[in-house]
Amino acid sequence: MNQSKYDRLATFLNNLPNKMKTQLEELKKNGRELADKDDFLWFILLQSFSTMGNSRGRDALIGTESNYRRVTYDYVKNEVNESERPEHFDRVLRDAKVRMPGKKAEWLFSNLNRIESWGGVAEANKIAFSKKGRTEKIRFMKSFDGIGDKYGRNIWMDIYDKDFHESVAVDERIKKISKALDVSFTKYDDHEKFYLELAGKTNLQGWELDRLMYHFNTEILEAINS
Questions:
Q1: Fewest CB atoms within 10 Å of the CB: 16, 21, 138, 160?
Q2: Could you give the angle at the alpha carbon of 96 between the alpha carbons of 94 and 150, nearest 5°?
Q3: Residue 10: in which H helix or E strand, if any?
Q4: pTM, 2 dp
């Protein structure tokens, strides 16, 4: 590890600009509102797949009404025949230029069938929120097709779940920071632990550090390399 770069990062985190503090509070508020959505579980799967591989996919899929309305839970359930859903998902994902559209269409189809087997998205939400503790919640999300270690954490972090205040969802942006610090890890948990320790040293929640590294990646890299 490059100690001088690590120290510069720690100093930066100990003196956050007000705009970053404000955005953290807004993200917490938005997360609580997301958890209250009637179609929470379906929406969060859509959001996860839209950002997987390239975060810009979210704007094109969810942020673009002409695309998003065609993949909402109610629309797909009521307007698209089950046999046509894989092709429908594939077409919309391609229109939104989401990465790996074919594979993600398969995942959405499989996951929608699973949600329907529970009696619909409202019942699926109840099952999700009945899970207790970090381990059980991650295991539940990872049971969905296409959801691995990163998104198994990130989904709960997106809603600022209390069991994930001390969590880091390691992604490509965080790996850029690790590279700048000259650190590398073979195990996901070790990578997460490194940043949780940094968060503790700078009086931040792991969640707060994670969101800062995601939303202010450029500024943090500049601070490290200054």
A1: 21
A2: 95
A3: helix 3-14
A4: 0.86
